[in-house]
Amino acid sequence: MKSFLTVSATFLLALHRGNTVYANNDPILYGSTTAHLSNLDPSKYFGTLAEEDRSTYLMWLQESTYTKHTFLPMVTNPDNGAAVLWKVYADGNAATIARNNNNTDLTHIQVAVAVRATGWVGFGISEAGGMLGSDIALWETANPNTVRDSYVIEDFDVPKKDDCQHWTLLRTTTDNDWLIVEMSRPLDTSDPQDHKLVDDSQLLTPTRLIAAWGDSPTVSFHGFQVGKISANIFPLPASGETAGTQADFETLMDEQADGFFEILANNYTIPAQETTYHYICKSFEELQEQYNLPVTEDGILTFIAGGAVLSPKTEQYVHHFIVYGSSNPTPTEETCGQGNMLWGWAPGEEPTALPQNIGIPLFDPNGYFRSIAVEIHYNNPEMLDGLVDSSGFRVYFSIQPREIEAAWLALGDPATLMKGTAIEDGLSEYSFTCASDCSSAALGSQSVTVIGETLHMHKTGVRMTNELIRNGEVANLGAVDVFEFAQQGSFKVQQEGYEIMPGDSFKTTCYYRDGTEFGLSSQQEMCVAFLLYYPAKSIDFGSFGSFPWGCFYGVDFLPVCNEKLEFQSLASVEGLGRKFGTPPSQCTGKDAVAPSSHDNDATPADESVSDSAASIILVFVSFLTVVQMLLLTHYHS
């Protein structure tokens, strides 16, 4: 299917700052060709090092045949980090990467990870962007002949060794304070202790990668030597039908957009503390005056694309941000950030455009986006003084409405009418069911297409699922097995688009541990699934009027779209129903290696791996991947 249009660039602007002198700290569009020179090759990584210090890496690079690459920067020093290079190929054809029109012949991935270290390196495929729920490959100089296939569920201290080993060590380079590890594995190991690598070439959600490294001979606490990024792993299909999916974004906007405006922090002094949330609110009148925005006959501008703009000197401190729209045309300091989710950004996510015929109305006098706010999460782990930032969000708009209007379907408890309901200690499950009558009333005889799905809880949420049920069977499952609020805030599901048919029902289930109570604050809990779909639908509720399609708990006067709640306490973590991390029935595939009895008994070296792995990628908890998020009725206290 044709989904969101995503720019091909995969580098952070900060990674290429080493040889650049900035006259000021004016924000630059993240992902623009002028900002981070997306067509630079990986020889530009580690650019601040002296040539003699880079010689080992550059000599290795000249001999490599990898087709894609990215850089995972340290937050404290974005010129240092982990270079990750890879190629996706058909089994037995690593040298010549031939692919068919839909990438279905691709079976394996070969990865190289290069870091400035002398001891060990860990590379992970992360569910949420951090350590929890991640699939990790570990290599140590103390155990140089193997890559340890490991996984993490909820315990930061103990990455567990997979029952079946699927990574194959191909080559290592250890010279001049460099570690370069090359390895391969199947894209789909059919192993629940591994993450399947799906074709993300045309998906809204890229693949989340993490890395950590150190100088001890076995894995140990890494401090700030960690990095993360989101990247499209797969190449574009050979078919030319969707070749424009990774076209130059600025050229596309020159063709499609009538203009843009930005909501910026505007010389905001980042506090000398690790975590800060800063809000910037703008009414249409303020934006119109600042940018001389056109005033259309109906007052509406159509959102067609968005992207981050980052201050070069401080962008490594921008952890993520969320863009809200509000039906309040003049938000105050107290109400800033209260409203519906419009967009979001985290490092690695490029400027993104809706499909050419789809848009979202802004500044509709009767709509949900009469004013816009940006919530920026700053991460200043060294608690530095004097950091001044002007980062923010750029909105591209068209004057003319698009053929199709996109909208958000909210499920679960989007109105937070569970507010004040206590969540008991231990593990608990709350399931909200939206009956089939709701989709029948909204859709009539027409189906709609979902192009994005986001699952939202707060700090005590541990797992969440959203089931689309058709004729008694689960037709689509959106799930996050290990929810981590510190990383995501909300979790965007990596999946292809799907259809909602009249008569479909939904079951949205949230799992909590030692919960607080339901409410609007981040210190309380929510349970909401948001589906971005088209074309937009509404439901006529007679004397109550017509409302955008949604399904709400506790709205008894709207019985057609009223969620039903089921609750149960869970006796153990097995009741969470997680798939990731469960033991495989057997080791399958020619690449799979079952641990030997020697491995299970653990030699002292193996014990060192297990014990010292207690701290692997610990600091990942402070690095979150907030992806472009969908509708969210979320008030901050």
Automatic annotation (TrEMBL):
UniProt cross-references to SMART domains, sorted A to Z: DoH
Region entry Disordered, spans: 583-606
Top-level taxonomic group: Eukaryota
Keywords of the record: Membrane, Monooxygenase, Oxidoreductase, Signal, Transmembrane, Transmembrane helix
GO molecular function terms noted in the UniProt entry: copper ion binding; dopamine beta-monooxygenase activity
Stated family: Belongs to the copper type II ascorbate-dependent monooxygenase family.
Protein name as it appears in the record: Copper type II ascorbate-dependent monooxygenase
Organism of provenance: Nitzschia inconspicua
